[in-house]
Design brief:
The protein is of the alpha+beta class. It is built from 22 helices and 18 strands. 51% of the residues lie in helices and 12% in strands. Strand 8 and strand 9 form a beta hairpin. Helix 1 runs antiparallel to helix 7. One of its GO terms (molecular function) is proton-transporting ATPase activity, rotational mechanism.
Length: 767
């Protein structure tokens, strides 16, 4: 649907004694998006959580912490059926105690393991020296230092030190050991003093009398033992996960419900005796809400549909319709009288029920339920990359479904690439559970399908033209236009891009017109219709035969009966309405036809609309902005550019592998790949289907011997992978840009709230 699902604002008013029953019933129905009371009513405060909320929250935190420790998810286990049995708190405490003990022990072992690994790493340099560790420490008259640095720099520094009278160095694998006899005037660390200014990393000597090898061996034994203990702990935690996973998930579900219900009064307006709860629900569900509450609490509450309304561009109600529900009175307009609201508040504060006044006490924007058909659902993801539509806006998701995959396929158009895009899309859609990934997969399949469709029309598979020769006796109906013989198609894609842009932008202006009808037909016209008329009239004149001699010939030849795409279009007729008087300087005698008249009327009314906003300055603003209707349409030429760029890249990749020979035909030069014969062989043959083979563009790695063929295969595969990936970044991003920047700017603001009915966990999801 182009409109989000219709919503109604409802209120439920009753005494505090039935509030818990009302909350439980509404939660079970899962229909109402609760509104938050802002404290604006005199005598009414936000309610307090129901008794036990804090305890339930603490238990919920405990359960979720255990699930995190156990790495438990709904994919690992199913929640136990039925309600929690008596004594479940003791069971939860037992699980918590055991899991925490194991987790604490695991942390201790990980700390020990890290220390052991660090000690192993520290002893490695000493093993490189081949000296027993007890020989590197414990001396009174000799200073010993071990580290990593330049042996030459170390020896030079020690040699020049006055505090050292003799020294010896040992080295291995970049590790240097220095044993030095200090002079009588030396300090406590003569080697350290000598190495000041030298880049040298010192290593502390382990306190042991073992050889480095034996020391490392002992440490490795400790490491193996610690890792074995970790495996035992992980196995025990896995056993707990398998045995108690269903129970924990069930506990989380019930505690989540309990916490939600217990904290619901925080959103209500309450007094000592009564409460008022308001919220939004789909209009069609109102009767089910009334029936559900009446079955539980009967006449103890007053249920009222406050607003079933149209909304302004800020999303707030402007008027209500006649609302009929059984014996309830109809409301034909939004009630704003202070007296009626005051009476309602006083009645509720005294413990009574609100009368059917229609007074909205919690003013908020209606949440949005996007009600799209199944195939369009994945494209809601593309829309939410910007923002969710407001309730008052049209939902353009269905247009994304109809245009984005078609744009994508039009730009790439290759059966081989389309099969790969479809395959990857199906893999993402079928193998993953995340909504975002599945949406991307579905979009990929749609884009791949249109890429295959246009690939058949272009007669291409991985840039080769064999498909067109197989399926069509006279060649494919469409060409990408990079070859001289088919260069007219490149001009056709330029014009096709312009026509696509005109259609796309016109739909955008229509959507904007519908959105702005709330402000009146005149306002909607000045904001949208005038721009649409200016754009359509201008481009109709560009494609009209008026002044044909001064315009590029391909505007009228490309789609003519003799053109590459013969649909019989040779330009719009002038359809003269009147001629300007001869006295008009520079324009005397000019025929003003329907296209110019449409453009002129659109321009004048557009400028008038700007004057209404900005005063006299609007004349300048409108005049400058009028050029947008020309530039915005030209922006769609990027589609033709992508067609030619990707076709050229695929051609180069195939040319490097297969080689290309040039055939001179009546229409111009055709380039043929050397798929069956080497290009040089075709040149020696001299002809191809009766036409002269004039030259070899490239001989092809395939025909240059085994080694060159192997290199060619690598280039062929890598090249097409690059083209495939660049197709996503170019066709995909350019298509998205045309949707977001050109199309959406005509009518779309976004900023809607997601509909989150009270009754389910408010988890991160993409619905």
């Amino acid at each position: 649907m182009l409109r989000p699902e219709r919503m109604s604002k409802v209120s439920v008013t009753g005494s505090r004694g039935v509030m818990s029953q009302v909350i439980e019933t509404i939660h079970g129905l899962n229909l109402v998006h609760l509104s938050d009371y802002d404290g604006s009513w005199e005598g009414f405060d936000n309610g307090d959580p129901i008794e036990g909320a804090e305890t339930a929250s603490e238990k919920l935190v405990t359960v979720r912490a255990l699930e995190s420790t156990l790495d438990l998810s709904v994919e690992d286990a199913n929640p136990d059926s039925g309600s929690l049995e008596d004594g479940w708190e003791d069971r939860l405490e037992s699980i918590r105690t055991r899991v925490n003990e194991l987790d604490d022990r695991r942390s201790e072992i990980n700390d020990e393991l890290r220390q052991v690994n660090e000690r192993i790493d520290r002893v490695a340099p000493f093993a490189a020296l081949g000296i027993d560790l007890d020989l590197l420490s414990g001396y009174d008259s000799i200073d010993v230092l071990v580290g990593e640095g330049s042996l030459e720099e170390v020896e030079a520094a020690v040699e020049a030190a006055d505090e050292i009278r003799a020294y010896e160095t040992f080295t291995g694998d970049g590790v240097v050991a220095i044993a030095a006899a200090p002079a009588e005037s030396a300090g406590d660390s003569p080697i350290d003093d000598a190495l000041v200014g030298v880049e040298f990393t010192r290593h502390d000597v382990p306190d042991t009398d073992q050889t480095p090898e034996a020391y490392v061996s002992d440490l490795e034994s400790q490491r193996d033992e610690l890792e074995s203990q970790l495996e035992e702990i992980d196995a025990e935690l896995e056993e707990i996960k398998q045995a108690e996973g269903g129970f924990l998930l069930r506990a989380e579900e019930e505690l989540s419900v309990e916490v939600q219900q217990a904290e619901a009064p925080l959103q209500f307006a309450t007094t000592e005796h009564a409460f008022v709860a308001e919220g939004w629900l789909p209009t069609d569900e109102y009767d089910r809400l009334v029936s559900g509450l009446n079955d539980v609490v009967g006449d103890s509450v007053e249920i009222e549909e406050l607003v079933r309304a149209d909304y302004n561009d800020e999303g707030y109600p402007t008027r209500t319709e006649a609302v009929e529900h059984g014996d309830s009175e109809d409301s034909s307009e939004t009630v704003t009288k202070e007296e009626e609201e005051r009476e309602t508040r006083e009645a509720v504060a005294d413990g009574g029920s609100a009368t059917a006044t229609g007074a909205v006490t919690m003013v908020d924007e209606p949440p949005v339920v996007q009600d799209n058909v199944g195939p369009a659902k994945p494209f809601e993801f593309l829309l939410r990359l910007i923002d969710r539509p407001k309730y008052s806006e049209l939902d353009p998701t269905i247009v994304l479904l109809l245009t984005f995959p078609a744009f994508y396929g039009f730009m790439l158009g290759d059966l081989g690439y389309g099969l790969l895009y479809t395959g990857v899309g199906y893999l993402l859609y079928s193998q993953f559970d995340q909504d975002i990934v599945r949406s991307l997969g579905a979009i990929g399949m749609w884009a791949g399908g249109f890429t295959m469709l246009f690939g058949i029309l272009y007669g291409e598979v991985f840039g080769l033209h064999v498909l067109g020769e197989v399926l069509f006796s006279d060649g494919p109906p469409l060409r990408k236009g990079i070859q001289p013989a088919f260069s007219q198609f490149s001009q056709a894609w330029l014009l096709a891009s312009v026509f696509i842009g005109l259609g796309h932008l016109t739909v955008g202006y229509i959507f904007g017109f519908i959105n702005d009808l709330e402000h009146g037909v005149g306002e909607a016209y000045f904001e949208n219709g005038s721009w649409a008329l200016l754009m359509i009239g201008l481009w109709m004149w560009i494609f009209s035969v008026q002044g044909e001699g001064a315009k590029p010939a391909f505007l009228f030849e490309t789609f003519s009966s003799e053109g590459p795409i013969p649909i019989g279009f040779s330009g719009f007729p002038v359809m003269e309405v009147f001629s300007l008087p001869e006295a008009v300087p520079g324009l005397g005698g000019l025929a003003v036809g329907v296209p110019l008249l449409i453009a002129l009327f659109g321009f004048v009314t557009m400028v008038y609309g700007e004057v209404r906003h900005y005063g006299a300055l609007g004349i300048i603003i409108g005049g400058l902005e009028s050029f947008n209707v020309f530039g915005d349409v030209l922006s769609y030429l990027r589609m033709a550019a992508v067609i030619l760029a990707k076709a050229g890249m695929a051609f180069v990749v195939n040319m490097l592998f297969f080689g290309v020979y040039v055939v001179e035909t009546d229409s111009g030069a055709e380039w043929h790949f050397g798929t069956t014969h080497a290009p040089q062989h075709m040149l020696e043959q001299g002809t191809y289907h009766g036409y002269e083979v004039s030259e070899v563009m490239f001989s092809g790695l395939l025909h240059g011997g085994i080694l060159m063929a192997i290199i060619g295969v690598f280039i062929l595969v890598l090249g097409h992978v690059v083209v495939l990936l660049l197709g996503i970044t170019s066709a995909g991003l350019q298509g998205i840009r045309l949707e977001y920047v050109e199309f959406f700017n005509r009518f779309y603001d976004g900023g809607g709230r997601k509909f989150e009915p009270f009754g389910r966990e408010r988890l991160d999801d993409d619905n």
